[in-house]
Amino acid sequence: MKLFARAVAVVLTAAVAVPSFGGTGVRADAATTVTLSPYSVYDINDGKFEGWGTSLCWWANRVGYSDSLAQKAADTFYGENGLRLNIARFNIGGGDDPTHNHITRTDSNMPGYTKFSNGNVTYDWNADYNQRNVLRKCIEAAGDDMIVEMFSNSPPYYMTNSGCSSGNRDGGKNNLKDDYYDDFAKYLAEVSYHYKNDWGIDIQSITPTNEPYTNFWYAGSPKQEGCHFDIGNCESKIILELQKAMNEKGMGDVIISASDETSIDTQIDAFKALSGDAKNAVGRIDTHTYGGSKRSELRQLAVDSGKNLWMSEVDGNGTAGTNAGAMAPGLWLSERITADCNGLNASAWILWQVIDKHVCAAGYNGKKDSGMVDMTKGFWGTAVADHDQNTIVLSKKYYCFGQYTRYIRPGMTMLKSSGSTMAAFDEENGQLVIVSYNTSSGKADMNYNLSQFSKVGASAKAIRTSNTEDWADAGSYDIRNGVLSVSLEPNSVTTFIIDDVKGGVEFTDKIDVDLSKVTGSSPWKDDTNYDCTKAFDGKTSTFFDGLGHGWVQADLGDTYELSAIGFSPRSGYEYRAVAGKFSISEDGENWTDLYTIEYTPSFGMNYVTQFSGEAVGRYIRYQVPDGTPDGTVNKDSVFCCNIAEISLYGTKKDEPPKEVLGDVDGSGDLHVNDLVLMQKFLLGNGELVKWKNGDFDNDDVIDMFDLVLMRKHMIANS
Fold it and tell me: 391 and 437 in one domain?
């Protein structure tokens, strides 16, 4: 088998069961092993991460009056010394009826860009100065990685059924008038066009709705705009009208995203209910994660639909940790980020708003500000704007957020993981980034197994936030025999940066397995949907659901020498793969053990290239042990054979080695030695071991023309 260097990445997860989001975090009484392997990445966007962000409304609408506060905010959240965010979701406000006075929050009365008088509509491009002022400064602070998405909470009030931009009088009913869908779409397109062409602000995407299928938005609300759209026809109609309006303005290259439902589960239903044309118009699914739990289902829906996927909004006043004090809100945020990213495989993660509370004795526009928060308790946002002191007060939640945003950067490849750990690989710079949180009151021992990377550095640099530290230099840890072993401090978030990392290899010579020659033990309830052939059908979404002492076996038809075995556990039951064993046989009766799975692998393909015995035979078998697991990882009463996919690589034992063009010294590969030998041969000072491999022009003569062609071939393939 020929191997070509390729840097891709994956995480094969923990060897000890770690509670998922909403649980108690990493156990302090048992070590957790996370095995990193360079073969499985996030399903979304080919694993490429687009970045971190926040919505600018409402906080930018509140602080943008002050150039000083706006600049401090841009530096704090988007600057190199701050969070290094690179995504801003900019609100195209609808604007409420100017005679209304029900919005009492000082930050959320978002202005619109039109004035309506006696049926006439005019645009006011001086509107929304505050949010725009902050946006410009954030773009400058973020630099080339900046992404701007436009979004809408509501149409202008005069387009609504209630005459109020806060929603319908009945929050569960549509508020956009039936004959104003095209007008609203043109409004969004006109504002976007003005921002791009008159103000030079590049727009990557636009979404016409915000949490549309809820009853949250009602006329007279004290806090913000909102507009209900029924799923199906109504959401499809506004998407298609927006597509038409954007095309008319020459902005058809702007991605239309949809539909920013408040719940993961609702987002699944809403996208499925779109018309075929509307689905085609949508370039990316945006979801909020305030509710719902079907992250893997939404991820698969996006993959099956060929769509990118963002987690475009969430926050809350939750806490986590054990007697964590000020770290409690930050640990909650860490849990949320990790669960959303690993579960959805989202290519971006966006906080609702980084500032939710404001301190100002005088208030703003005749309204009273919310005031300071107790940062040891749950609160929305990551910081508080103190307008009296012209400063931004930071919290542990802010610093915990930065443990992710500052080091997992746009363009990195996201690695599949679970539990308390996220990871990303920077192929270009050879850097691996791992972020883990510990919500226990004691230290948590972690082993990061890096042995499947072709090369790793000798040590890992640690950056930590805890109750006594903010992005602190926590020293370095040695990597021994490909394993990084650490103890996470109580109630902490730690980022590990490993340099000089190279990815794995690309496997060739895959063995085609005839499903008619796959046998195995009985599946659960004899259900053929989960029988042993599913382990070789080329899909990780299907699986063999075998019983105790289960096994699956493939007859390859000929004797092969294996070079690699790939395997994927069943999603959600990865722990059942521990102690599973691969064996090989020439006759199907006498078996040689090749590899036993020692750690809980992650869902996705994992690969083995080092075997404990001679990997030559016709039959390959995967089998789990008899009896009862010891309970440290697998707490089932029996070992169950669950495997989603197996792939095999190698060559037939009696198959002659492949001839390589230019390999005149018989080494099996083309390299500089072949060029030297060719030159010596032409000078009469050497003999070619395989002269035919040097006959580049196929004229049965080795001459200077072949030498020139060899050089060109080497340069083209270097």
Answer: no
Q: Quick check: is 209 in a domain?
A: yes
Please tell me whether residues 242 and 388 are part of one structural domain: yes
Measured CA distances, 419 to 22, 90, 209, 408, 436 (Å)? 11, 33, 33, 18, 9
Q: Residue 39 falls within a domain, yes or no?
A: no
Identify whether residues 639 and 566 lie together within a single domain.
yes
Q: Report how far residue 394's alpha carbon sits from residue 72's, in angstroms, rounded to the nearest whole number.
A: 12
Exposed/middle/buried for 99, CB within 10 Å: 0-12, 13-18, 19+?
exposed
Cα–Cα distance for residue pair 466/488, rounded to 1 Å = 10
Residue by residue, what is the 3-state secondary structure of 54-116? EECCCHHHHHCCCHHHHHHHHHHHHCCCCCCCCEEEEECCCCCCCCCCCCCCCCCCCCCCEEE
Q: Kindly report the CATH number assigned to the domain that includes residue 451.
A: 2.60.40.1180
Q: How distant, in Å, are the alpha carbons of 333, 447, 625, 633 from that of 630?
A: 34, 20, 12, 8
**What is the chain's Cα-based Rg?**
29
Least Cα distance to 51 among 391, 460, 411 occurs for: 411
| Residue 51 placed within a domain | yes
pLDDT reading at 120 higher than 90? yes
Q: Which of 396, 375, 294 is nearest to 339 (CA)?
A: 294
Q: Are residues 348 and 427 in the same domain?
A: no
Other beta carbons within 10 angstroms of residue 637's beta carbon come to 11
Give the model confidence (pLDDT) of 364-398 as tens digits: 999 999 999 999 999 999 999 999 999 999 999 99
Q: How far is the CA of 107 from the CAs of 353, 386, 448, in angstroms?
A: 11, 14, 45
> What is the model's pTM?
0.81
Residues 54 and 116 in one domain: yes
| Residue 358, token pair as written in the block | 């404001």
Secondary structure (3-state) at 697:
coil
Report strand pairing: 255-263 vs 205-207: parallel
Does the residue 419 lie in any domain? Answer: yes
Domain around 82: 46-405
Q: Is 475 helix (H, G, I), strand (E, B) or coil?
A: strand
Please state, rounded to an integer, the average pLDDT across all residues of the chain: 92
Q: How many domains does the chain have?
A: 4
